[in-house]
Write a structure and sequence with these properties.
GO terms for molecular function: metalloendopeptidase activity; polyubiquitin modification-dependent protein binding; single-stranded DNA binding. Helices cover 38% and strands 13% of the residues. It has 249 residues and is α+β, with helices and mostly antiparallel strands.
Length: 249
């Protein structure tokens, strides 16, 4: 296990292989792209945040395609089997993207685990594309493996960060910020509308409920930890997700 940093956050590099760990339908090429921070993104838009929200909500209300139905079946089967390892966030990312985000995030997001002091108090962080990583970067805290109650919490944290990545990809870093929500421009009305729509939709699929609670902080930094009630804090360049977690029994 190697370690390097990205934006001052310690990356915990755990190479994922299609024939090891969690058994799931995904190719090695897809896995490698997700774990390659130097991979060039294939898509980025500059639409207004409300338009991005409206497109996302409209897509959630459309009839499921055959590919989406297959993805949901795979996710349900994994949830029922409860046979998964920490590589599950890598291997299920593209299916979750297909079901909830129209496949927009695939090839446009770097996904990995992170540790160190910066990640002791947040479950996940999402960065806009910058010089050190040409794509959106979603980093999930390794501490989440100790404090999560299971696959539901891992998926809830991942989806929270994927919503941030969706708006960053569709709107860009500046346009994605909802300045009308001064207290927390990274979790404004459009973000919350999309999050609630996903939560409601997932109740019908029975496998990806967003069981994590959120509230807005009073400042840019929340002095909480993974064992405390959830917080979501942010600065102009990144999005944090603090979740209510319990140690795995």
């Amino acid at each position: 296990m190697l370690a390097r940093t990205l934006y001052g956050i310690e990356l915990v590099e755990r190479k994922v292989y299609v024939d090891r760990g969690t058994k799931y339908h995904i190719s090695q090429d897809e896995i490698d792209i997700l774990q390659d921070k130097d991979y060039k993104p294939i898509y980025q838009n500059k639409m207004k945040v409300r338009k991005a929200r409206d497109l996302a909500l409209s897509a959630l209300n459309r009839p499921l395609t055959e590919s989406q139905q297959d993805a949901i079946a795979r996710l349900k089967e994994l949830r029922r089997s409860d046979c998964w390892e920490e590589d599950v966030i890598i291997k299920t990312f593209n299916d979750i993207d297909l079901v909830l985000f129209r496949g927009i995030l695939q090839d446009n997001v770097f996904l990995g685990w992170a540790g160190g002091r910066c990640m002791k108090k947040c479950a996940g962080v999402t960065w806009a594309p910058r010089l050190l990583c040409r794509r959106c970067a979603i980093l999930i805290s390794v501490k989440l493996l100790d404090f999560s109650s299971g696959l539901r919490d891992l998926w809830a944290t991942l989806i929270h960060e994927m919503i941030h990545a969706y708006f960053l990809i569709e709107c860009g870093r500046i346009r994605s910020r909802e300045l009308s929500n001064i207290g927390d421009p990274d979790h404004g009305p459009c973000y919350l509308d999309f999050m609630r729509a996903i939560r409601d939709k997932m109740g019908g699929y029975e496998c990806l409920p967003l069981s994590v609670k959120y509230h807005q902080p009073n400042s840019g930094y929340c002095p909480s930890d993974l064992a405390q009630p959830s917080h979501a804090d942010s600065d102009p360049h990144r999005h944090h997700h603090h979740s209510e977690e319990r140690k795995r029994r």
